Amino acid sequence: MFTKFRLLILSFSLLLFNCNKEVNISFEDIYISSENSIEINIPKAKGNQIIAEAINSEIETTVARELYIGSADSESPKIIDESINLFNEEFNVFKTDFPESEQIWEAQIDGEVLFQSPEIISISITSYVNTGGAHGILNIIFLNFESATGKQISNKNLFTDIENLEEIVKTHLNEAIRKKDVVVFEPTDFELPTSIGYSEDGVVFLYNTFQIAPYSSGIIEFTIPYQEIKPYLIFNSTN
C-alpha cells in the first residue's frame, strides 16, 4: 500500500513538473543589423525547447517575409539572413542601374511581447521598409501562440462567436473612425482586421494602412476591454 502511494505521489509530481516545464517560456531581446540601414529588434523565446523553437520559427518567418522585397510571385525566404542578403543585393542592383541616385534604402523591424499568460502569448511585429518610393511601407502584425505548445493561433480560433463579435467590433471601429476623423473605403462586407492580439487592457484590433482607409489616414487601432469581450474569448485573459 505504501509503495502504491509513493508511486501515485511520484506520478503526480512528474505530471506537475511536465506541465510547468511546458509553459516555462520567457523572452530575451535580440538585435540584428546590416548595411543599408537594416535594424531588427525582436523577442526570442527561451525555456522549453519545443515550444520556444515553434514560436521563434514563426517570428523569424514573419520578419523574413516583411523584409523581403522580391517578386510577389516568388516565395519569400523563411530565414532572416536570407532576406537581408536579398535586400542588399536588390539595393546593389538599384545603385548599378541608377548610380546618380542618392536614395538610401532602410528597413526597421521591431517586435515585442504584448501579453503572456498560461494560455496565450501575443507578440507584435512592426516593420517599416523604404526602398525609394513616395513613402515607406509600415505594417504591424500580431502573432498569437498557445503557451503550452507554441502553436500559432489563427484569428478565427481566438473567439467562440465571430458573428456577434463582429457587431461589437463594428461599434468600436465606427467610434475610432469618428475620433480620428478619417474617410474609409466603402466595404461590401465587414471584415475583422488581420491584426488581432491580446494586451494588458483588452483585445487589440488593428487595421493596417490601406486595409480600410487611404495611406494618409495611417493605421486604425482600438482596444476592446476584456470585461466587454470575455464571453467570446476562447483563451483566458488572466496572466
Could you list some keywords that capture this structure?
239 residues, single chain, alpha+beta, five-stranded mixed beta sheet, disordered N terminus, globular, 5 helices
Write structural notes for this entry.
The protein is of the alpha+beta class and 239 residues long. 34% of the residues lie in helices and 28% in strands. The chain has five helices and eight strands; from the N terminus they run H-E-E-H-H-E-E-E-H-E-E-E-H. Strands 1-2-3-4-5 form a five-stranded mixed sheet, with helices on one face. Strands 6-7-8 form a three-stranded antiparallel sheet. Strand 4 (120-130) and strand 5 (137-146) form a beta hairpin. Helix 2 packs parallel to helix 3 (80-97). The longest helix is centred in the first third of the chain and has 21 residues, at 2-22. It is globular and about 60 Å long.
Low-confidence stretches: 1-22
Strand order of the biggest β-sheet: 1-2-3-4-5
Mean pLDDT across the residues is: 85
- How many distinct helices? 5
Please give the share of residues in helix: 25-40%
Cα-to-Cα separation, first versus last residue: 40 Å
Order of helices and strands: HEEHHEEEHEEEH
Largest sheet: 5 strands, mixed
